[in-house]
Amino acid sequence: MVVQIGTLLQIAPRYDAIILDQWGVLHDGTTPYPAAQSALAQLHKAGVRLAVLSNSGKRAALNAARIESMGFAPEWFELVMTSGEALWQDIQTRAVTDRVFFPIEAASGDALSWSDGIEVAFTSEMSRADAVLLMGLGDAGHAHRALDEALARALPVYCTNPDRASPRAGGVTVPSPGALAHAYAAAGGTVRFYGKPHLAVFRAIERALGVAPNRLLMVGDSLEHDIAGAAAAGWHSAFIEGGLHRATFAACEDAPASLQALCHETGFALPDFTLSTLR
């Protein structure tokens, strides 16, 4: 049964740490959600351990800086982890041995910035690549054409943003790299996903914080990534109605019932709690 709550502070004492998604929970990509900063300030004042777990293809430090620039105090967060950071670490420790990548990025230079500190190279010629790095979406047409060529060459794709869509300002939802990665896999290609809902990144958070799975709460707006990933990891979860699924819940009178119907329709796990926005 999903329990409707008014604030995270109501349930915070049940957990040793609260892990927050970024887009759709803290901000919409450009602007913090109205009550998010005050909610986190209250949680921090109450001694609640907080961390961010984001399906961003960029490094953790860059995301921490973005969050701080929006007015979230860095001391509120014990840890910021991203899917891009997880791949960077695997390359650094040689858990991943591919070294020459064809980059698909939101903006030119993103991949080069991400690679600082590890020995990798980037190429604009698919024939020279060991693999594709799918970290962002700029020119969608270019991305589709590149992945068609990669599939023909049977190259693996490393996807560091498994999200299929992401909320933006004004209630707009935009396609994300995960949509292309899933299409690539459906066409027979090999994809290695980094980030939620895949178990490795949840276990990494547990190790970093030293907290058992059943003492962690994931707060997110994606049933597929945040909520399903938390359930598979043995964490509890709280769903944010005003993020990715904002249109579904905008005029909803019974959020728990609507949420149960949506989970039944999609086949995703139910969260333990639901609240309108982070507050």
Order of strands, main sheet, comes to 1-14-13-12-2-3-4
Give the CA-based shape: globular
What is the multimeric organization of the chains shown? single chain
The CATH homology group name of the largest domain: HAD superfamily/HAD-like
What is the β-strand count? 14
Here the CATH topology of the largest domain equals: Rossmann fold
Largest sheet: 7 strands, parallel
SSE order, one letter for each helix or strand: EEHEHEHEHEEHEEEHEHEHEHHE
- Beginning-to-end CA distance, first to last residue: 21 Å
Q: Could you estimate the helical fraction of the residues in percent?
A: 25-40%
Structural class: alpha/beta
Task: Extract low-pLDDT stretches.
Answer: none
Mean pLDDT: 96
Q: Quick one: CATH class of the largest domain?
A: Alpha Beta
Total individual domains: 2
Explain this structure to me?
The chain has 279 residues and is α/β, with parallel strands linked by helices. 34% of the residues lie in helices and 18% in strands. The strands form 3 sheets. A 7-stranded parallel sheet has the order 1-14-13-12-2-3-4, with helices on both faces. A 5-stranded parallel sheet has the order 6-5-7-8-11, covered by helices on one side. Strands 9-10 form a two-stranded antiparallel ribbon. The protein is globular. The model has no long low-confidence stretch (mean pLDDT 96). This is HAD superfamily hydrolase (TIGR01459 family). Keywords: Hydrolase. Pfam families: Hydrolase_6, Hydrolase_like. InterPro entries: HAD-like_sf (IPR036412), HAD-SF_hydro_IIA (IPR006357), HAD-SF_hydro_IIA_hyp3 (IPR006356), HAD_sf (IPR023214).
